[in-house]
Structure formats: C-alpha cells, structure tokens
C-alpha cells in the first residue's frame, strides 16, 4: 500500500504539472484584453518623473503617458494598477495586471520568472547626496547610510559594490526613500538619475546632486511568460514608436533630457 500510495502521489503531481502547463501554454492575454476592452497596466506612481500624481491626484509621468499611448493603439480602455517597485512581479504573476510599465529594468533574475519586451527606455543609476556630503566614488560610501528601494535595481547594483563600512538602508518604495533623504535619515541614495533630479527640483533646500554614476540599465514592458501573441504585438509597438520618435518625445517631455540611445542594448 505504501508503494501504491507513493505512485499515486507522483501521478497526481505529474497530472497537476501537466494541467498547469496546459493552462500556461494556452494563455492569451492579448485576446483577453481585447475581449474585455480594457488593459490593466501596472505603474509605479511614486517614482517621478516616470510615475506620479498631480494636484488633483491624477496619474501623470512618462510611464503613464506610455501606458496611455499603448492602450489607445490597442483600441481599449486603460486601467492603471498602482504598484511599488517590490510588488511589480507579484501583481503581474497573480493576474492583477496584464503588463507592467514602471521603469522595469531588465535583469537575468527577473527574466527567470517573467518576460520582457524590447527596451523602451533606459536609466542611468547614480548615487546622489546633498552638496556638502563628501562623496565622489564608491570608496567614499564607507561610514555612510545610503537609501535604496528594497529588492529593486538600485539595491541589486549598489549592494555588491558598496564597501563593507557602508550601510545600505532599504525602503519599500521611492516615496519613502525620498522622505528619508529629505528628513536627513540617510546621507544619500542610489536611484535613476531622472528620479534624483526630480527629488532635487522638489526639495531645492537639500541641495541634492549626483555624485557619481554606476551603470546604464535598459527597462522594458514586463509580461507573464508564454504569451507569444502579446509579446509580438508589444515588441512591434515598441520598435515602431522608438523609430518614429514617439517614445523619445514622451521621455523628453517628462524627464527633461533626450532618450538614451537604445541601440546599445540591441541583441548582438
């Protein structure tokens, strides 16, 4: 009976796996979006100038405008699903969003569980701090407290590079990182250059400035794996609107600088 029981358990596990595989293999989010006439796009509204809200609490920013343009070209209504850096993948994987447009940096770790489109933008990650803070390089972070978003790209980039004497202080989102910098709870932060510039503009008394750059990282639209039709449509949309300058115009409008050359991230 013990052998039969083990066999039964294994058979059940195999059947469950096949059922899950069949469910994934037949996933067609693009068809679902068109059928419901609405696309659910996850955007981080706490990451200006990419995602934020205005005085009327209306979403705005480069990622918001990108999402609006995409929904319009799909011919469907847009519903913005508000997320933070750490919960972008969970919201996507649990079906709370059809896709993520939230400066979603492409990393090997994320690519194991989700799929990315071609890049539609890029961020230069920097360390920024008030002018009076003596930081010029990674070595100068020794004895300093530097804020990052927990589990986000800045965390992944800075943590292995920082000297042992540096303290990496992790927060749940960009809004709390900003609050920590403004209140003096930390000495500086690691973040995309555009976000550092936005924080500096919003808090001129802090004299926040970029101290040094770490790396340029492309970001893309994130979707669930095994979605060939959706990925094909999105890649075509990104490529078309990169070439015609539409995505560059959105980036320039909100970030205030030209779009980085995305050709450097093309597959070779």
What features would you describe in this structure?
Strands 1, 4, 5, 6, 7, 8, 9, 10 and 11 form a nine-stranded mixed β-sheet that branches. The protein has a two-stranded antiparallel ribbon with strand order 2-3. The chain contains ten helices and eleven strands. Strand 2 and strand 3 (59-60) form a beta hairpin. Helices cover 40% and strands 26% of the residues. The protein has 268 residues and is an alpha/beta fold. The chain has two domains: 28-122 and 219-260, 3-Layer(aba) Sandwich (D-Maltodextrin-Binding Protein, domain 2); 123-216, Periplasmic binding protein-like II (D-Maltodextrin-Binding Protein, domain 2, 3-Layer(aba) Sandwich). The chain is globular and about 55 Å long. Residues 1-26 have low confidence and may be disordered.
């Amino acid at each position: 009976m013990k052998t039969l029981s083990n066999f039964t358990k294994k058979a059940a596990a195999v059947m469950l796996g096949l059922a899950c595989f069949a469910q994934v293999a037949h996933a067609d989010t693009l068809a679902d979006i068109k059928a419901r006439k609405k696309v659910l796009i996850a955007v981080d509204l706490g990451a200006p100038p990419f995602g934020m809200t205005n005085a009327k609490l209306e979403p705005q920013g480069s990622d918001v405008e990108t999402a609006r343009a995409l929904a319009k070209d799909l011919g469907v209504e847009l519903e913005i699903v508000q997320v933070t850096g750490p919960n972008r993948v969970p919201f996507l994987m649990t079906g709370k969003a059809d896709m993520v447009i939230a400066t979603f940096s492409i990393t090997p770790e994320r690519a194991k569980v989700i799929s990315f489109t071609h890049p539609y933008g890029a961020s230069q990650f920097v360390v920024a701090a008030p002018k009076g803070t003596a930081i010029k390089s990674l070595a100068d972070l020794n004895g300093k407290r530097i804020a990052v978003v927990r589990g986000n790209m800045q965390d992944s980039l800075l943590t292995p590079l920082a000297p042992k004497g540096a303290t990496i202080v992790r927060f749940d989102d960009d809004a709390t990182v900003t609050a920590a910098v403004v209140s003096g709870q930390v000495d500086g932060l690691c973040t995309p250059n555009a976000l550092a510039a936005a924080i500096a503009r919003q808090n001129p008394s802090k004299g926040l400035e970029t101290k040094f750059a770490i790396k340029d990282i492309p970001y893309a639209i994130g979707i669930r794996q095994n979605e060939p039709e959706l990925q094909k449509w999105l890649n075509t949309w990104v490529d078309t609107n990169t070439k015609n300058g539409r995505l560059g115009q959105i980036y320039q409008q909100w970030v205030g600088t030209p779009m980085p050359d995305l050709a450097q991230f093309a597959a070779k």
